[in-house]
Amino acid sequence: MLRLSYALGAFLLTIALAGNALAAKAPDNSQLFEMIKALQARVTALEQQNRAYRQEVAAARNDADSARLRLASLTQDDPPTSAARPPMRIGAPTPVPGTVVTPAVHADRWSGLYFGTSFGLGATSASSRVQGIATLRTTTTGQGLVGPDTQESFSAVGGTDHNEGALVDLYIGYNKHITPRAVAGIQIEGTLSQLDFSSRVTGSRFSRVQFNSPSVSSFVFTEKSSVLNRIEAEWMVSALARGGLLATPSTLVYGLAGLAYGTFELSEIFPASEGLLQDGFQTTPVGRFEKYGLSVGAGIEKRLSPHWSLRGEYRYTRFHETDFEESNDFTRIRTQAQGTFSQVHSLSAVSNFENEMHIGRIGITRYLGKRR
Which of 19, 22, 154, 189 has its CA 20 to 30 A from that of 371? Predict the structure, then answer.
């Protein structure tokens, strides 16, 4: 464009000089024709230069458009349409032929807040020991007999009983990527359960019977005794730490560990066919007690969509050994053909319990926030 401006300036200068020359002296016809031919030749040359400049500008525009198209094709994310030469990302390293390129993992795919629910089935095992003292005073009217006064001490050691049960959890947690493929987090959950931790104890019972009548002898005896400690878990809460690795971008393999705290209900069943005090030892609700324990486990979680996942998990929980003190006092009056019996019963005992459980769970989880 600058060269075109210079050419037009030179042309105008030539016209001005020719006008001055004509004004200085009037040329003859031959000179006038020569000057016109020279001007026509100059105009023709300028037109040719102008066409050449326009062609150069058009070619430059075509080159710029081609460069923009090539740049757009290099930066788009679509897979290559040609098997011979896939497009390369700008700034990405060139893959070496024959190597496997691992797909990128979104650094925040598993990070964030989540909540969910799970259902579990499993097996429990429990053992218990009982020791204590029971006293009974019986007053009989109608035959002139008063007594007996009975005192018993008993100690029983049981084996391990196995049971089963079910539970349902509600949980909330938070995950965080600590590396592109490692995930760590915490989880809090509440559990409602129908888990049976009952155990039967058998042992020896020593009894001393003293009648308050000179006509009836006192005696001492020892016999086998059994008690069924029926223990049911009502609810639990757990605080857990989770950590795992991504097997694939949508599959997390994890382990967990934490504390569990639960409430248990205890009742005792003494078989009616055993013992002098059989009428005083039937199914007896004892009370509730709390226990805490350690939980460990492992699981796998699969993303079904950006916001939903399905998990399967195994967890083992062992509760600490617990001593439960029991006292029970009551009075009973009954009438039979031989007379009226009045019984005053008192029991003081200490029970010791150990229990654990193995639970398999299936859960569905909802992840909050923006997901990819």
Answer: 189
